[in-house]
Amino acid sequence: MKPCSFSLLPVLLLFLVPVLAAGPGCASCDPTQCAPLPSDGCPAGSLQDSCGCCAVCAAAEGEPCGGRRATARRCGTGLECVKSDDDKKSKSGVCACKNNYEVCGTDGTTYKNGCALKSASLTAQKEGKEAISVLNKGRCASAPVIVTPPGQVYNVSGSQVYLSCEAVGVPTPVLTWRKVLGGKRKAALLPGDRDNLAIQTRGGPEKHQVTGWVLISPLTEEEDGSYECHAFNSKGEASAIGEIHLVESIDEIKTGLKEDEL
């Protein structure tokens, strides 16, 4: 009679598999003991916990992440756990978006990064709306907005004066100046043929922003009046009015400034 023989490998695997699946610090998995996900969903989506047992909310942008063993918390898709030098010992950090550039969503909204767009998309879907996807990198196209309109200037004949104006839009607006003529709001494009008047324009100080100036030296009676700052791009246009006042004395300049501040 041949001696009986059997392998212990299948028996050992039965004991090893649950241990390997659980991981350090994890108890045996009992799905009935898992806490339910929030009824309104998770802002950054859901994933399996570090023990591979329960579905939990992923950590969203700006929320704590990392940790040790069974208590470790993971970031949602598109996020990474950023740890400072002080956090390396505790293995904890804060979730940050892997992409830090602005994106334009299919809803026409500019988001600070792709993670903010994804969060907005999840919220929209929970409300029964269409999902939001990336339309293009960078800001969404928008009509110009005058962020700093030209003010009012008071000065005497022969002085040097200027008006400034700032506008923002996507694409970056083109800025022009016009002198308002008469009461019918007609306007003449500047600088025209005046030797004492110049127009300057530069980009900035912010992205998609443009700044322009009307520079007059010397100031004469002909330059007294209203000036229109006009910004335009492929999405629209905007304008604002500033004024230059020619006065006879320094006392009138002080009076004018007080009236302008009221």
Q: What's the overall average pLDDT, rounded?
A: 84
- The separation of the N and C termini measures 115 Å
Give the strand content.
35-45%
Continuous helix count: 3
Task: Encode the helix/strand succession as letters.
Answer: HEEEEEEEHEEEEEEEEEEH
Helical/strand content category: mainly beta
- State the domain count: 3
Q: Main β-sheet: number of strands, strand sense, barrel status? A: 5 strands, mixed
Q: Helix content range of the residues, please?
A: 10-25%
Strand arrangement in the largest pleated sheet:
10-17-16-12-13
CATH superfamily descriptor of the largest domain? Immunoglobulins
Tertiary shape: elongated
GO biological process, one term: regulation of cell growth
Signal peptide: 1-21
Subcellular location: Secreted
Protein name: Insulin-like growth factor binding protein 7
Can you offer a commentary on this structure?
The protein is mostly beta strands. It is built from three helices and 17 strands. The strands form five sheets. Strands 10-17-16-12-13 form a five-stranded mixed sheet. It has a four-stranded antiparallel sheet with strand order 9-11-15-14, with no helix packed on it. Residues 8-21 and 258-262 have low confidence and may be disordered. Residues 89-142 form the Kazal-like domain. Its main location: secreted.
